[in-house]
Every structure is written in C-alpha cells, then in structure tokens.
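User: Predict the complex.
Assistant: Input components as received:
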Amino acid sequence: MLNISNLHVSVGSKPIIDGLSLAVPAGEVHAVMGPNGAGKSTLSYTLAGRGGYEVTGGSATLNGEDLLTLGPDERAAKGVFLSFQYPLEIPGVPALTFIRTAMNAQRKARGEPEVSAPDFLKRVRAAAANLRMDMDMLKRGLNVGFSGGEKKRMEILQMALLEPRLLILDETDSGLDIDALRIVSEGVNAMRSPDRAMLVITHYQRLLDYIKPDRVHVLAAGRIVASGGPELALELEREGYDKYASSSQSVAAA
Amino acid sequence: MSLAAAIAARDPDLLPSRRDEDWRWTGLRELIRVVPPASPKVASVAGHAALAALGWPTLVFANGHTLEEASIAIPATGKGAFVRRFVSASDGAAHHVEADVSVGEGGRLVLIDSFEGEGAGYVASAALSIRLAANARVERIVLLDDAEDAISVARTDVDLAPGASFHQTVLAAGAKRQRFETHVSHPGAGVNVRLDGAYVLTGKRHSDQTTVVAHAGENGITTQLIKGVATDQARGVFQGRIVVQRGADGTDARMAHHALLLSDRAEIDAKPELEIYADDVSCAHGNTVGALDEAAIFYARSRGIPEAAAKAMLTTAYLGEVIERIVDEPARELALAWLTGRLERLA
C-alpha cells in the first residue's frame, strides 16, 4: 500500500527527514512515535503535499503510484487523508458544504458521478451519529468556535465520509479528554479494513491503547531508528526516547 | 466641481481632480480630456433576467431618461419593494440622471438600484435622494455593473426622520472609474444606519465606495462593513467618514473595511475618518488588507478540493459575511447570485 523509500525532506534549507524508509501494507495500522522535533509532522505534511516541504531525495508511493509529484487535491482523490493535528477554522463555509464539495471534487477527479443531496445527507447523519455529533454543528462555519475535541471529531467525520485508502493521523489524541479520545478512536477503528492502511503519528503511547497498531516505528532525527510490535510503544512509554535521540546523534556524527 | 456640471456644460475643467482631497484616488479631470456628447434618448433596453425574476415593480432609466412616464406608489402599510434600473445604453456618450424616493411615516421598503452598462466608453452621473419619514424602514441593495471602460459616478443623499432605519448594501464590480457615494444625515434618536458594501474587481477596474454619515442627534447608531477583493491591476477604494456633531452624545459608530489582494499589482486605498465633536461617544474603525490564508487553502486541497475551487470557496465565504447581513430574503439571494457570478470571473 504505502511505500516510503530513503525519503529526504527539507524545510527552508534545513533537512528534517533524513533517509526515512517505511512500508505500510494494506490492512495494517502502523504507529510512528518520536520525540518533539523528530520530523513527525513533516512526514505527515510531506505525504499530504503541503507547500514548503521540499523533497530532496527518495520516493513515496501509494499502490505503486508516485505521490510526491501530485498536488494535495490529487493525492486526496487517490485516497490519501491527513487528519490534522490542528484542524483549521473556515468561517462562512458550513461543514456540510465543505465536505460535500470535497466529496464531489474527489469523485469528479476519479470520473465518478456526484453524490446526490439526499444520499449525502443520509451518509452524514449516520456518520455524525456514530461520532455523537449534532447536525447543527455541521451547519455552522467549519470548526468555528469548536473545542479541540469537536475539531478532532470533525476530522474523523470527514475521514469516514471521504473513505480514504491511506489514513494519516497526526497527533490525533492531542487536546482530547478521555471520553473524546474513546469516541474518536472508535471512529478510527471502524475504518479499519483489509484494503486500507493507517499511519498513526503520535508522541504518546496513550492513543495506542485505543487504536492498536500492528507495528510501531521510532522516528528520531528524521529517520526510523527502531521498529517492532506493539510492545515497543510500551517500552517507549517506560523508558522515554533518550536512547534513540542519542543513538541517532551518534549515527549522524559517525 | 462635479461630473454632472461638467456634463451639462461639456467642460472638463469642472471635473473633480486628484488634487481635491476627496477625489485623490478617483480623479476624473486627469482621465477625461473632452466631455463626450449627450447620450441619445433610447426607446428600449435589454432585459435583466435576475431582476425580472423578482417580479417586483420596476422603473427603467435609460441614458438618464425614464423609458415611460411612471412612478411607483409605495404602500402606506406593509412592505413595498421595487427595482430601479439605471441603464447606460449608448457608446461614448454622457448623461446625468436624478431620481427621488420618499417613504412615508412607518413605511417599509426594499429598494434595488441596479446600474448597468449596455454601452461602452460612456460617462454616467447620477444624483439620487432618499427621504425617510418617522419610523420608516428602508433596505437598499445597489448593484454596480458598469462596462469595463466606463466612467460612472453616483451620489445618494439620505435624509432620515427620527425613528427611521436605513440599511444599504452596495455591490460593485468596478469600471474604468466607478464611484458610489452615500451621504446620510443621521438624526440620532435610536436611528440605526447600516452602510455595507462589497467589491469584486478584476482587470484594470476601479471602484470607489465613499460614505459620509453626519450624526446630528443623540444616541444614533451606525454600523459599516465593507469587504472586497482585487486582482490583476484592479484598485479598490474605500473612504468612510463619520462626523459626530456637537451634542450628538451617545453616538455608537462602527466602521470596518477589509480587503483581499489577490495579485501583486492590485491596489487597495482606504481612508476611514472619524470627526468627533461630542464627548460621550463610542466610535471605532478597523481596516485590514491581506491575502487568502495559505493554510486554509492547503486544508481544503488536502480534502480533494482543487486549488482554484478552494480559493473561490474561501473568497465567497469572505465576502459572504456582507451578504448575510441583508435581511430581505429575495434581495439577499439576488446579492448572493451577483457575488457568485462575479467571483466566477476571478478564476
């Protein structure tokens, strides 16, 4: 599904991702954990195609198709979805309008017919009910005046409706209380399927109690420095990132 | 010094110039060397589908003349609604039009004034007045759809009796030079004046919205929200003056002008002025010029919305704030359709 090979990314002229390789097969959930400044957000923004993240080497493909030459909207139409750490507020654009515009734009790009208004509303009602979201929230400006937890739920709602193939969750647990974390995690877990891959990017192990990963990778100084099963997350929680931070520095110095 | 006087005398020396402080961004003297000949009388003009769809009584002025001798009675009770079309129908000609509206005590009126350019290269001037008797309420929508190479100046004087309210939304698409002035004599006494506007400017179009509100009595309210976008080499001008005269205590006046510059060569000029001669007043003005939020564009694109559509969506939302303040629903829908149509030309 997702294949990242020897990826190098600079922001400004500063290298942030430095030879990162990672493969997430279809049907699997992989966690990427790492200390602040390791390049976690750079990785998610690079995969989504944000401007200002310059790929200086390596590749990233989704089902064999090169992602890095595509614009963000083209990647979305291919099935990439980034759940933002800090979702934006868009005054004047109701969430319903935003999501329907996005859904139809993706369908158009794939040569599929538009979703009808009644069909769309039916889907939204079902998805909103699963996430305990009030339909009134969806009629107001997107995320305007929402709490952190409400914004994250709105991200998951969009994800559920857009049905992506590659789900990237960037620090989805930040700003969530336990109840919101449970609801959001249930929403994410409901998306698990044999033809989807998930990349869960997080600083803390806590989220992984709710979204169980198949593999855990440690990102430090711009590359994957260790990989293992779910037990690796627990070890990081106990022992911290210190040993990886120092080992990657010594690698860089060598 | 006015365009009307220059047209009447065919004397360009009577035109306001950049050296007049109030015309520094919209000087006409520098632009018009010879005043064009008077526009001919015409017998008919093309239809306007969006206005016709309203089904409201309509007065048509073509080249400064009414097409037929007609007047529209405003009902003494209930809400009246009518349309005035000011059509510049001929190429390279000049005309001036005058028209008045009076609303009686307690009357309610929705008024749509549409300025349209059927011809090219014309010079059009208008002097309009609106009088509101006690407790009358008027909501006015102005559509400025002049030809790209036209010069068009309109001035409206609004006179309010105590207890009246006047709400206006001016939607401007610009012209070679386009200026829309609104002068309000504000009696205070709880009277509520809203003077809003939006502009969408492309190419080399120029649009100037100038407002002057003079608060003469106590406890008057004025609110203003003007928003615009300018791209290419277009220029948007906003001049807003609020005068609070001696004794007009308790005045509450808020003026805001916000613009998006979508190109490096577009220009926005703004001059908010508060002249306050009373002690106990609450007056504020805010003015911003910026670009579309790149982070919001990326967010929309990451959901699959192509860049041009994302920009159009954000721009519509930006200007939509002005449209949402229109109370009358058919008028609001007309305004929204106007805005959507104009924004399509931005892409």
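Chain B has five helices and 17 strands.
Let me know if you want any component modeled separately.
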